[in-house]
Design goal:
Helix content: 25-40%
Number of helices: 4
Shape: elongated
Strand content: 25-35%
Structural class: alpha+beta
CATH architecture of the largest domain: 2-Layer Sandwich
Number of domains: 2
CATH superfamily of the largest domain: Hypothetical protein apc22750. Chain B
Protein name: Excinuclease ATPase subunit
Radius of gyration: 24 Å
Organism: Vreelandella subglaciescola
Distance between the termini: 90 Å
CATH class of the largest domain: Alpha Beta
Order of helices and strands: HEHHEEHEEE
Largest sheet: 6 strands, mixed
């Protein structure tokens, strides 16, 4: 007994294949366009640091000093460090996703302070795509359809 199989062409026909291909390509084009959104936001540092989660997770003994804000004298320098964090932005406003990812970046710097034996991060600046943007009270966040990201760079130190 001879077994026969029907290929895709037999099931869909030429028109069906064209419709399937157009649908798949159209879906890919829509996905590419949606994911390509890159909205740059400048947001207040204070808002992120005043989140209820920030108040419970950020160590009050570690100082975060943005831009050229005055600070106590540096007793010891531990190095310059970068953190680059992303978060899921799906079903969140750009601002909400940015505050959340900013907290994640601050927690990463806090971990670095603990690892290096310091008590502060000074000269903190946004460093998205390795482009420095220094501000005493704002940070840069990039928000897209699916992700939001914050990159920070700062000097881990021990302040007197």
């Amino acid at each position: 007994m001879m077994k026969t199989t029907q290929g895709t062409k037999g099931l869909l026909g030429k028109k069906g294949l064209l419709v399937l291909a157009a649908t798949l390509l159209g879906g890919l084009a829509l996905t590419s366009t949606a994911e390509a959104r890159d909205t740059v936001l400048m947001l207040p540092v204070e808002q992120a640091m005043n989140l209820p989660e920030a108040k419970t997770q950020l160590d009050s003994n570690i100082r975060f000093v943005f831009g050229n804000t005055p600070h106590a004298d540096v007793a010891e320098q531990h190095g310059n460090f970068v953190t680059n964090k992303k978060t899921n932005a799906f079903n969140k406003s750009d601002e909400e996703a940015c505050r959340w990812v900013m907290l994640s970046a601050l927690l990463s710097l806090q971990d670095r302070v603990r690892t290096e034996g310091g008590n502060a991060v000074i000269n903190i600046e946004s460093f998205y795509d390795r482009e420095p943007m220094s501000s005493n009270d704002e940070y840069e966040c990039h928000a897209g359809m699916l992700m939001a990201g914050v990159a920070l760079r700062g000097d881990v130190v021990t302040l007197r």
